[in-house]
Structure formats: C-alpha cells, structure tokens
C-alpha cells in the first residue's frame, strides 16, 4: 500500500496528466483496501484485480498493456516514489522536443524500515548509446533498479513484453533488450526508493536454478550480436562476481553466515567455473570467503559497512571490462568517469 500512497502524493499536483494502474492478486492486500487508497486520487486510476494468481510477470505485462500515457514507470509493492518524483520525471520528458525513450534516474536503496543503505545516482545527465548501455546492463546487476527507469510506452511495441520464460530475472532480460535497441539517458535526479528486506523477492534469487536462468539470458545477449563475444564474456564474469558477492554480503549483514556460505558455493557450479574472473574479483572473492569463515560478531559489522558504503560494482571497478578495453582502473575516478572510458570502447566497435 505504501507504493500506491507514494505515487498519489508525488503526483497529486499533476493529476491531469498522470494515470495510476494497479494490477494485483495479493492475498495480503484486498481489493477494497487498494480501491480505498485509489479513491483519494483525483486523476485517472484503474484497479485490475485478478481472480487467479497471474504472477509477477503477468502483472507487469497487464499494467503495460493497459497504460495509456506516453511514459511508463513500474513500481513494485516493496518500493515507493519520493515526493519530487513526478515533478522530476515530467521535467525530463517535457523539456526536450523529442526526449529520450528510456530515462534512468537515481534511487535510494533502503531496508524494510526505510533506512537508507545506499544512494545510487548519476552526477550529471548523459546519454549512453545502445552499445554503451548494454555494457553497463551486462556488467553490473544493480545498474538498473526497477523504480528508477521510465520507459516510453511504444518501446514495448518494439522490444516486446516481459518474458515469462525468463523467470525471476525477467527484468534483467527486459533491460538488456531495451538497452541494446534504444540506449539510456541517465538523469541526476533521485526519484524513488528501492527496498531490500527479507520479504522481498530479491532475497530469494540466489539459487542454482536462477543462476542458470541468468546464464541463459547472457546467451540471449550473445545472440543479439550487439557486442563482440569476448566483451560479453568479460561482462558476464563481472556480473556474476558482483551478484554473488553482493548476495553473500547482504546475508552476512544480518548475521546469516550459513546463507552467505551457500551463496559463495554458487561460484563452484559447473556452469560458472569456466568464467574468466578478473584478478580483482578473485581477491574480493577470497576476502569474502574469509569473512564468511569468521564469527558473526566480526563478520556482521564489516558486511554492514560494505552494505552502507558502496556497491560491489564500485569496489570491483568493473575491472573485467576495463581490462578488455586495455584501461587500468584508477581509484580516483568516479563510477561515471569509468563508465565513460569503458563506453568509449563501444563507440569504436
């Protein structure tokens, strides 16, 4: 309900140009409760209550299919908009005569109680061409946070709907299709909060089956032919290294050493072993193994510090992609600067 309430409060001054669509079959939230929340909204609103469980992907596609506005923002029930969100989005979409079809804004990564773990944002507005954007999506699992991306509705006519066959990582599959076709415009404004807590679907993604599903998505990226095979493999190694380390760190931060150890074991899957991890990743992996092996009273504060003071994409400095480009990582550079350097390679391809 917090997501609906936040959308209403952020958008109330612009009720004439904003439409709210809710697709739901959650047993925790009744139709009456949702409609009661929407009753305070002065603009257009639609509640799509489903008699049967159509799943996450079904709900996403249903919202997109019923949307009538020019741009679409998808807000999951765990996430919420910040008060200035709609103002910032409209400013970005209305400022130019032909605004970019895909806009990526900053997000606050928060826990279940709304405490900010990390602020993920861009220092300035800049465009990523399709190869540049695809490199970012394929090498950083956290580059696109769902409540931070705003997509022109006709983009879905070109790239298709969310794929049920992609399972839980269906958004990753969608982002790479969008990035490869349209690129991304990055905006410095922060518009939403992305929630990570025990009840969130994100905390149940670290399984062998999900790993194999993500590997299949990388094969889809190879099939696109938008990047050289060697570069896709470099990005793939970076992506999985960050994915596993972030998951283990998250579990350690709440004192769950057993779950952290199980996540680190995913490095040993037969499908993962052939990946050529960078030396920086191997060192970080060794450090995480040591952290998992020590008592919780020691590992938990370190993991919490990692959670609140940076992301693994920052710590690892996207070393695999920089190595492919022949660039030495520079600790003094910002993530945005490193992106510009690595992206310069894509322009030459």
Tell me about this structure.
With 349 residues, this protein is of the alpha+beta class. The chain folds into two domains: 2-195, Alpha-Beta Complex (Spore Coat Polysaccharide Biosynthesis Protein SpsA, Chain A); 228-348, no CATH class. The chain has 15 helices and nine strands. The protein has helices at 2-11, 31-38, 55-66, 85-95, 130-139, 155-159, 170-182, 208-224, 229-253, 257-264, 279-293, 296-308, 312-316, 319-324, 335-348, and strands at residues 19-24, 44-49, 71-73, 80-81, 102-110, 116-120, 126-128, 149-152, 184-195. Strands 3, 4, 5, 6, 7, 8 and 9 form a seven-stranded mixed beta sheet that branches. Strands 1-2 form a two-stranded parallel sheet. Helix 2 links the parallel strand 1 (19-24) and strand 2 (44-49). Residues 317-349 have low confidence and may be disordered.
How do the strands and helices of this protein lay out in sequence?
Blueprint: H1 2-11, E1 19-24, H2 31-38, E2 44-49, H3 55-66, E3 71-73, E4 80-81, H4 85-95, E5 102-110, E6 116-120, E7 126-128, H5 130-139, E8 149-152, H6 155-159, H7 170-182, E9 184-195, H8 208-224, H9 229-253, H10 257-264, H11 279-293, H12 296-308, H13 312-316, H14 319-324, H15 335-348
Parallel strand pairs: 1-2, 5-9
Antiparallel strand pairs: 3-8, 4-9, 5-6, 5-8, 7-9
Helix pairs in contact: 5-7, 5-9, 5-15, 7-8, 9-10, 9-11, 9-12, 10-11
């Amino acid at each position: 309900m917090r997501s609906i309430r936040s959308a209403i409060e952020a958008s109330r001054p612009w009720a004439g140009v904003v439409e709210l669509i809710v697709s739901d079959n959650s047993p925790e939230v009744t139709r009456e409760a949702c409609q009661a929340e929407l009753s305070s909204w002065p603009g257009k609103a639609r509640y799509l209550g489903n008699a049967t469980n159509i799943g996450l992907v079904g709900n996403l596609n249903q919202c997109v299919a019923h949307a009538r506005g020019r741009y679409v923002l998808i807000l999951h029930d765990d996430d919420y908009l910040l008060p200035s969100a709609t103002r910032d989005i409209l400013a970005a979409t209305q400022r130019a005569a032909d605004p970019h079809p895909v806009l990526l804004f900053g997000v606050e990564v928060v826990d279940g109680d709304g405490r900010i773990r990390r602020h993920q944002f861009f220092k300035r507005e800049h465009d990523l061409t399709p190869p540049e954007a695809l490199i970012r999506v394929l090498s950083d699992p956290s580059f696109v946070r769902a409540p931070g991306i705003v997509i022109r509705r006709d983009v879905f006519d070109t790239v298709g709907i969310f794929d049920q066959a992609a399972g839980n990582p269906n958004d990753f599959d969608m982002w790479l299709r969008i990035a490869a076709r349209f690129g991304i415009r990055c905006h410095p404004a922060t518009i939403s909060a992305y929630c990570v807590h025990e009840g969130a679907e994100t905390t149940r993604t670290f399984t062998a089956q999900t790993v194999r599903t993500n590997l299949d998505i990388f094969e889809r990226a190879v099939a696109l032919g938008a990047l050289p095979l060697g570069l896709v493999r470099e990005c793939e190694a970076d992506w999985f290294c960050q994915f596993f380390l972030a998951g283990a760190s998250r579990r350690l931060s709440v004192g769950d050493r057993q779950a952290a150890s199980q996540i680190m074991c995913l490095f040993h899957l037969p499908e993962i072993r052939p990946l050529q991890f960078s030396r920086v990743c191997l060192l970080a992996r060794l450090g995480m193994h040591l952290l998992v092996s020590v008592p919780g009273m020691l590992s938990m504060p370190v993991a919490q510090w990692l959670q609140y003071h940076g992301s693994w994409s920052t710590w690892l400095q996207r070393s695999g992609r920089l190595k492919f480009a022949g660039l030495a990582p520079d600790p003094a550079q910002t993530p945005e600067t490193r992106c510009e350097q690595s992206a310069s390679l894509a322009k030459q391809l």
